[in-house]
Design goal:
single chain, 233 residues, Alpha/beta knot, Trp Operon Repressor, Chain A, 2 domains, two-stranded antiparallel ribbon, 9 strands, 18% strand
Length: 233
């Protein structure tokens, strides 16, 4: 997969993309992530990528021209303006909420182009360039760079070969609309807090059944709304 990011704040991506699973996925050649500064497609002396809103109001609005020119240049690499293997996504609080099923769907594309929204807003015409809009939740953030990183992380870890073990995705939170089961490691007894005996039994069938039951119980208590979507236990 190839991921291109259009942003006003490219430095926000540096450390996160160079750590943990995202770093390993790039080193393995499973994903290529490129960060593009929208100011590279501006032509005034101040490299202005935002401006005052028409009609007045507080703050600045992200301009349409840099986004248009950036997308135009990136799309030259794909021959077709919008082919079936490429998805242009605008990160905005007005988009559909990101869920695990969304990440799974997006992970099937070969190329993603992410447009990071601006904290005070963006020119409405930018929406016309996106195939879809995504939000990571009903709260206010400074800008779209953090949601872009969340989306990237949720998608990249689903790519074949990124996670080390085939079982890694089987019982994670939100898989099958269930939260993840409790996990433990050494020591087996810490200040009187003991690991459930079943996990020390070596009986893999019993352990798997325990994990399924614990995942269901945890979901009922903490996120019963997930069960309404139809869990498979």
């Amino acid at each position: 997969m190839k991921i291109d990011i259009l942003t006003l704040f490219p430095k926000m991506f540096e450390n996160v993309l160079d750590e943990s699973i995202l770093k390993r996925a790039q080193k393995k050649g499973l994903v290529e992530i490129r960060v593009h500064n929208l100011r590279d497609w501006t032509f005034d002396s101040h490299r202005s990528a935002d401006d005052k809103p028409f009609g007045g109001g507080a703050g600045m609005v992200m301009k349409v021209e840099p986004v248009y020119l950036g997308l135009k240049e990136l799309k030259k690499e794909t021959k077709l303006q919008r082919n079936k293997e490429t998805r242009v996504i605008l990160l905005t609080p007005q988009g559909k909420r990101l869920e695990q099923k969304t990440a799974k769907r997006i992970a099937k594309y070969k190329r993603l182009i992410l447009i990071c929204g601006h904290y005070e807003g963006f020119d409405e015409r930018i929406r016309r360039f996106a195939d879809e809009e995504i939000s990571i939740g009903d709260y206010v953030l400074t800008c779209g760079e953090l949601p872009a990183l969340v989306l990237i992380d949720s998608v990249v870890r689903l790519l074949p070969g990124v996670l080390g073990e085939k079982e890694s995705l089987r019982f994670e939170s939100f898989e099958n609309n269930l939260l993840e089961y409790p996990q433990y490691t050494r020591p087996a007894d810490f200040n009187g807090m003991k690991v459930p005996q079943v996990l020390l039994s070596g009986d893999h069938k019993r352990i798997e059944e325990w994990r399924k039951n614990e995942a269901l119980k945890r979901t009922i208590v903490r996120r019963p709304d997930l069960l309404k979507k139809g869990c498979r236990v």
